[in-house]
Amino acid sequence: xxxxxxxxxxxxxxGGSLRLSCAxxxxxxxxxxxxxxxxxxxxxxxxxxxxxxxAARTSYADSVKGRFTISRDNAKNTVYLxxxxxKPEDTAVYYCAADYISGYSQQDLLRLxxxxxxxxxxxxxxxxxxxx
Length: 132
Hints:
Elements: E1 3-7, E2 10-13, E3 18-25, E4 32-39, E5 46-51, E6 58-60, E7 68-73, E8 78-83, E9 92-100, H1 106-110, E10 121-122, E11 126-131
């Protein structure tokens, strides 16, 4: 059982930055592709960014491309989301998620997903509020 704990959320003005962290415990962190999702009030949870097991590959939603950066430190069992140039529409609860991927082929190491259903474990979320 993997436990994920997000931190780093808060209130920031338009144009500001935040760095979200997600600490994992209870599993082999490098066996998981990691993702960030967000959910705004009244909306469904949506994909933000994902990173493969070795960080060789990343993917972003069009709405955050060029402003957000996902990274991971496998030695610290932590995944990060650097969010710059924040906009009011980025206001949401941000969740990190872990997708277990077995195997060590190149395909396995590069695999990542934007689909909520592919992820096995979820954190409790951290609130990000961007004021205009």
